Amino acid sequence: MAAPPDSKSDKSPEELLCAAAEAGNDDAIAEIISSGADPTYFDASGMTPLMRAASGGHAAAARLLLDAGAPWNALSPEGLSAGDLTSDPATYDLLLNVGFGMGLVDQAIQRYEPEEHTIIEAHPEVYARMLKLGWGEKKNVRILFGRWQDVIPQLGSYDVIFFDTYGEYYEDMREFHEHLPKLLNPGGVYSYFNGLCGDNAFFHVVYCQLVAMELASLGYSTQFVPLPVRDCLKAEVWEGVKQKYWQLDTYHLPVCQAESESE
Ligand SMILES: C[S@@+](CC[C@H](N)C(=O)[O-])C[C@H]1O[C@@H](n2cnc3c(N)ncnc32)[C@H](O)[C@@H]1O
């Protein structure tokens, strides 16, 4: 008897992978990937397996796919990435970013229209530029001008914290981490710019482990989500930059949560 048209045998390994991702079936995903299915596949609707996992809210499935090389920045026909398609996202209303710099992270934060977005910036010229660009007038933005070490008594507690004072010493970041138990709300997420030894793959991984161990001693577990960045960092990106501070193909995005709350 012929198999029904929608039976598994009619589907390519990649279609099966999309179906397993949509269902959050981690065992099937691992099996299909190890049998050689391509995680970069786009199905007939222009969706990747990672987008299917994300829109189903299956975090473990998404992690398996990312580990297998699924592109995190692929876009659906509507121009949405897997991150944009995440279903039922947790509500993060109170955000803190330490170090404005070019304002890239803060611009990204603003797209989520948080209730309260606090920015700490110490450099007078960067602060002046922030004001010139209108950051001082944004209703949901609170700017604290000064070193984080000095303005910390003015802080509350936050659902999301990002730390990037690149240029400070490792010891400064470690000191900041000691404040996390007071600064990070239950269920909150902490991340930092993971550029430590960004020109040496071996020492970079050592640093990742070191930070994760130190955060673990404070009661936090850290996952590093591998994000391929080689294609985003072409030669022109570095034009005018004196020292190329990042030379690796993969960025390891730290996602740090209280141990009791992480998966
Ligand atoms: C690499 S930039 C941040 C880039 C930023 N993440 C972005 O998206 O453009 C680092 C920023 O941290 C600021 N900074 C350095 N040390 C600081 C400190 N102790 N407290 C507050 N800001 C600091 C610097 O003035 C600089 O603007």
Automatic annotation (TrEMBL):
The ANK repeats extend over: 45-77
CDD domains given in the database record: AdoMet_MTases
- Taxonomically, the superkingdom here is Eukaryota
One Pfam family assigned to this protein is Ank_4
Q: Where are its TM segments located?
A: none
Quick one: a GO cellular component term?
nucleus
An example Gene Ontology biological process? methylation
Q: Which residues form the RMT2 domain?
A: 1-263
Matching Gene3D superfamilies, A to Z? Ankyrin repeat-containing domain, Vaccinia Virus protein VP39
| Transferase in keyword set | yes
Q: Does the keyword RNA-binding apply?
A: no
Keywords from the UniProt entry: ANK repeat, Methyltransferase, S-adenosyl-L-methionine, Transferase
One MF term in the entry's GO annotations: S-adenosylmethionine-dependent methyltransferase activity
The family database entries (PANTHER family) matched by this protein are listed as: GUANIDINOACETATE N-METHYLTRANSFERASE
What's the protein here called? Answer: RMT2 domain-containing protein
Name its species. Triticum turgidum subsp. durum
